Amino acid sequence: MSLTFNQRIALVTGAGRGIGKAIAETLAQNGVTVICVSKSAESCGAVAAAITAAGGKAKALAVDVADGAAVAEASSALLAEFGHIDILVNNAGITKDGLLFRMSEADWNAVMSTNLTSCFHWTKLIGRPMTQKRWGRIVNITSVVGMMGHAGQANYCAAKAGMIGFTKAIAKEFAARSVTCNAVAPGFIQTDMTAALPAEAAEKITAHIPLKRLGSPADIAHMTTYLCSEEAGYITGQVFTVDGGMAM
Ligand code: NAP
């Protein structure tokens, strides 16, 4: 089945590396114009340049998604330039791990503002014109640990669980305007975020994955791209786990 995208415009946060880069590239391969957002201008700039060099349409914008004022400024500039944005993928995320008794309030707040509050700001700002146009796709990249929990990641698990509640609430608020909102919950994916894990620990994790391999960014990009397509128009408020069977 080939997917239908009618000259859509997408904004992908955290598009400079890893999962977000794969999502931006896959959407662009499907003819979508992609606005690549990351914290550093270098990473989103390189991804947008590669998409353009491959014949796709992309723009890069460095925005700190944890900064509500910066997101507001970026959103109004983008809406002035493009008129509207059809697809929003809230993917930017960080970890600041530690057992609760050693976790600082700064690390709690950094993970909350980057992973969760950023979804509030982008969805509110980009979502309004989407609902006015009566077509839209929002995909929030959560994590299996938002459903399972994980020792040493209370901040990250709380933010990712929050994204699931947010997804379901927005799905209900925006449904009457044909704007869908879903979440994708990756398991263990090979990116810079997980690169620090020692080989021995990665082997142990792999042993617990029924499909016996770590995931690739493309595994997440395929599910996300489907959820952004015309064909996914009757799916909203759902969480799609992509984890090789790990959280079964
Ligand atoms: P990654 O390789 O570390 O890349 C993170 C991306 O997010 C980078 O492009 C980074 O920008 C951007 N970013 C981080 N903080 C930002 C900020 N304040 N403002 C703007 N952009 C920011 O991460 P990943 O593994 O691809 O993860 C992507 C998403 O999937 C995250 O939400 C993560 O929680 C989720 N996830 C990942 C896994 C996994 O196993 N990897 C599993 C479950 C869920 P720069 O390039 O400028 O640094």
Kindly describe this structure:
This protein has 248 residues and is of the alpha/beta class. It has one domain (9-241): NAD(P)-binding Rossmann-like Domain (Rossmann fold, 3-Layer(aba) Sandwich), CATH 3.40.50. It is 48% helix and 15% strand. The protein is built from nine helices and seven strands; from the N terminus they run E-H-E-H-E-H-E-H-E-H-H-E-H-H-H-E. The protein has helices spanning 18-29, 41-53, 68-82, 105-133, 145-148, 154-174, 192-195, 199-207, 217-228, and strands spanning 9-13, 33-38, 58-62, 87-90, 136-141, 179-186, 239-242. It has a seven-stranded parallel β-sheet, with helices on both faces. Helix 2 (41-53) links the parallel strand 2 (33-38) and strand 3 (58-62). The longest helix is centred in the middle third of the chain and has 29 residues, at 105-133. It starts with 8 loop residues before the first strand and ends in a 6-residue tail after the last strand. Bound molecules: NADP nicotinamide-adenine-dinucleotide phosphate (NAP). NADP nicotinamide-adenine-dinucleotide phosphate (NAP) binds at residues 13-14, 16-20, 38-40, 43, 63-66, 91-94, 114-115, 141, 143, 186, 188-189, 191-194.
DSSP helical segment count: 9
Number of strands: 7
Q: How widely separated are the two ends?
A: 27 Å
CATH class: Alpha Beta
Proportion of residues in β-strands: 15-25%
How much helicity do the residues have?
40-55%
| CATH H-tier superfamily | NAD(P)-binding Rossmann-like Domain
Any low-confidence stretches, pLDDT <50, length ≥5? Answer: none
* Major sheet details: 7 strands, parallel
Largest sheet: spatial strand order: 3-2-1-4-5-6-7
Q: Radius of gyration over alpha carbons?
A: 17 Å
- Shape, per Cα inertia axes: globular
**What ligand species are in this complex?**
NADP nicotinamide-adenine-dinucleotide phosphate
For the record, the CATH architecture stands as 3-Layer(aba) Sandwich
Question: How many structural units, i.e. domains?
Answer: 1
Q: How does the helix and strand content classify structurally?
A: alpha/beta
CATH level-3 fold name: Rossmann fold
Q: Secondary-structure element order, as H and E?
A: EHEHEHEHEHHEHHHE
Tell me, rounded to a whole number, the average pLDDT: 97
